[in-house]
Specification:
The structure is a homodimer.
Chain A lengths: L2 H23 L4 H4 L2 E7 L18 H9 L1 E3 L2 E2 L5 H10 L3 H4 L24 H6 L4 E6 L18 E4 L18 H5 L13 E3 L2 E4 L7 H15 L5 E6 L21 H22 L6 E7 L26 H4 L3 E4 L7 E3 L3 E2 L3 H9 L15 H4 L10 E6 L2 E7 L2 E7 L10 E10 L15 H16 L12
Parallel strand pairs in A: 1-8, 1-9, 2-11, 3-12, 4-5, 4-8
Antiparallel strand pairs in A: 2-10, 5-6, 6-7, 9-10, 13-14, 14-15, 15-16
Helix pairs in contact in A: 8-9
Chain lengths: ~475, ~475
């Protein structure tokens, strides 16, 4: 071996060594730059229904732990006070009035509906697809049950769940629960009363869905997906169909909660949350995964103890009072999301821009987005949030607006099925939500300037809405 | 030195050595067996007013930490829905109807009152005195302002605070806050409007009390006492006179809370709690000290945003609905009290027997005690509490009774000053408090047997009450 050979050999070895060192020095994996996202979304869960949000008899140790280790958001909103439009808002980052998923004709989609989320809308799943995310929807969809509207047509690699609410396809009236005797009964009705199917991708695989085991199965499906996709970045949208009535709980949870069947259901959902966070830890993914827990709208109060509680907030599902649209929300990402009680404004519509920001994906620029990037708040880079306004739409009207602490009601209506009737206010009611979170004291008379500025902001906002095809009216 | 001298010398040395070893082997100090006790008692704080109990805009990081590290009690009651009788219950472990501290004539003691807690009553301070405890009362007393009724006559080594409510001795009517203009105002009135004195032991040392600085001074007085008595076991009863209206906050806190002046006050109380627990840690006393935080009754709702919130509970101060008598309660004793959300029943009247049990003091046997020893629950020796009943007295009548989850209302009345008027129910209303914590659904018709058993238990209880001199009627 001559000297040149030796030098070459040494050079090769050095290059190899530096390559290895360089490899060791680069960020651990791509997944560190492309965090995983898990949304756990409940149905009709009230603001006051978790231990961490003050419920006295429902035990939610796993969610309480997430709240301690992460951010508990106390001013977090949904895009509508009922299922379909609220879900459209979350997945698209846009007010449902912009996508045709909110309507004066019908509040939500029904089994006879012919509409759904238009293919022109860009969902979180589609946005993340551009960076190679594996995506799954598990649970209740309710954005159109015809094949062209199901999750596989909206950026999800897989889907397993029920296509609309768990009280639909009812065999004894719609829903049977409106009957007073049912309201008083503390039992799970025979599942045959609800012929709601389970769909896998686009095929019906079970009918009627066995709702007694469905909550546990949703969590298991989410976990299976996480295990199978642990090597790439992933997004799981886990949308429980409970605690929407009728209520069902698995054997392990049935009759175990002090709060009755409603509490059993929440405690089972909480246990599923615990299983998911444990699996994330076991797979060493907890430091790479943002988990968000919230719900689609407030509690359905007419169903008495089968419905939840909005805590100190006024009214519930279907209302634009706070109880209908403010939800108990937790962001959890150990080591990254700064533990905090977060009082800044946020909304489900912010999830799309926030996830895009964290995954380094561009947000769509060809349309109005109503969401804001919450990541600086989550990461503790700022204490001042990007969102200053909440718009409270109901059917095709803007009922109320919040700017900072102030909320003006132009129209009020109570909880779907029980609350006070629709009332149009010639001069809006004004509440200071930070001082008066229960919306008890209308102080419009004392603050005419604030009222005027909210009226103007509402008018500007209304003018920004372009008419689109009404998807909920199609049948 | 002969051999005997040597042996003697060796013996002496050995005895000395063994004495030292023996000294080193005995428990660290008596204080390890005689834990310290600190009660932090608020005035008119609502069930929903702490972060740990779900308030969206009041920040209570210190109490939230105590709740995480200790036991957060969700079914913890006071002995009455207004100041004087509630305080008598806490300090004596007895329903105030037994001590004459509850009356049909007047709800509480006033500056013209001539009565007070009888000397025949045994307070927590007196019970602990038998084991050499140092005892201090700091803050609002309201169990009689004549010298014979003040804390030094009831087992307290020292006292510093106001003798009755902070809205008494009002110079512009009683209380000035009942005026609607005041209710809407978000300000601290000039302290001269309230000529309430500060008493040190039995002497007036300040008049009017400077209520702007009083909350901070109470915490400091408690801390001074703890520092001075760190070598012996001690008991501090720190009874803040806020957030009872009128509201005042120190400079550091004024205008800082999103919740307005009411939130400022709670955040200042929380900061004081933080200072106290920090001092306990610094003095290495945290592992030897049980700290209990609670309040005397529910929020005073007519004062609008100057009053608190009972969260999801019904009504407030003065009412025997849950909002009047269930309080946000935390037990904290790091390393000893098992961290937990505690849903078993408890009451302020349980503090005397609980402290006695932990301090190895016998409880009085010559009288009826209404308290139970909660220490097995606190220490995690059992999950089943000793208390199965709550009696809701108002003036001189038993308005309601709770047994397990069931509550029967014989008489109802809303919050003092604003709620529904007194109503006697020929047939009692019945609520299931675990399923229906907001007392929305009267289900008496469905459960006649439960109603009958509660009626019987109430009758038995009423018969156990012996007539005594009415202390509140004396003037």
């Amino acid at each position: 071996m001559n000297i040149m050979q030796s030098i070459t050999r040494l050079s090769i070895r050095l290059i190899l060594l530096f390559t290895v060192i360089q490899f060791l020095l680069i960020p651990e994996t791509d997944a560190a730059e492309q965090p995983n996202f898990v949304i756990i979304f409940c149905d009709d869960l009230g603001y006051g229904d978790l231990g961490a949000f003050g419920h006295p008899t429902i035990r939610t140790p796993n969610l309480d732990r997430m709240a301690r280790e992460g951010q508990r958001w106390t001013n977090f909103y949904v895009g509508a006070s009922v299922c379909t439009p609220s879900r459209a808002a979350l997945l698209t980052g846009r007010l449902p009035i912009r996508s045709g998923m909110m309507s004066a004709k019908r509040r939500v989609l029904f089994p006879d509906s012919k509409g759904g989320l238009p293919s022109s809308e860009i969902t979180i799943a589609e946005a993340l697809k551009s960076k190679g995310y594996a995506t799954a929807a598990v649970g209740k969809w309710h954005l159109g049950h015809l094949p062209q509207y199901l999750p596989p047509s909206h950026g999800f690699d897989s889907y397993w769940g029920i296509p609309y609410s768990n009280d639909m396809d009812a065999q004894k009236g719609f829903p049977a629960y409106r009957n007073e005797a049912h309201r008083n009964a503390d039992y799970s009705p025979p599942i045959e009363q609800y012929q709601v199917p389970i769909i896998h991708n686009t095929q019906v695989v079970e009918k009627p869905a066995n709702q007694h085991t469905i909550t546990a199965r949703y969590a298991d499906k989410a976990i299976d997906f996480i295990r199978s996709n642990q090597k790439k970045p992933f997004f799981v949208y886990l949308a429980h169909n409970l605690p929407h009535i009728p209520l069902f709980a698995g054997k392990e949870f049935r009759g175990k909660s002090a709060r009755g069947i409603y509490g059993d259901v929440i405690e089972e959902i909480d246990a599923g949350v615990g299983k998911i966070t444990t699996v994330l830890k076991d797979l060493n993914l907890d430091k790479k995964t943002l988990v968000v827990f919230t719900s689609d709208n407030g509690p359905w109060l007419p169903f008495r103890t089968h419905g939840g509680s909005a805590g100190l907030l006024r009214e519930g599902k279907g209302s634009t009072f706070e109880g209908g649209m403010r939800e108990p929300t937790i962001f959890w990402w150990p080591g990254t999301v700064i533990p905090k009680v977060q009082m800044e404004l946020g909304a489900t519509m912010d999830l799309l821009p926030t996830f895009c920001s964290l995954a380094d994906v561009s947000t769509p620029t060809d349309r109005v987005l109503d969401g804001h990037d919450l990541s600086p708040l989550l990461l503790g880079k700022t204490t001042k949030g990007p969102r200053n306004e909440i718009f409270y739409w109901r059917s095709s009207e803007l009922y109320a607006i919040r700017i900072g602490p102030w909320k003006a009601h132009f129209i009020t209506q109570g909880c779907y099925g029980i609350g006070p009737k629709r009332e149009v206010h010639e001069s809006p009611e004004l509440y200071h939500l930070e001082n008066d979170p229960s919306e008890k004291y209308n102080i419009a008379e004392n603050h005419p300037d604030v009222v005027a500025s909210l009226v103007k902001a509402a008018e500007d906002h209304r003018n920004s809405i372009e008419p689109v095809e009404d998807q909920l009216a199609k049948r």
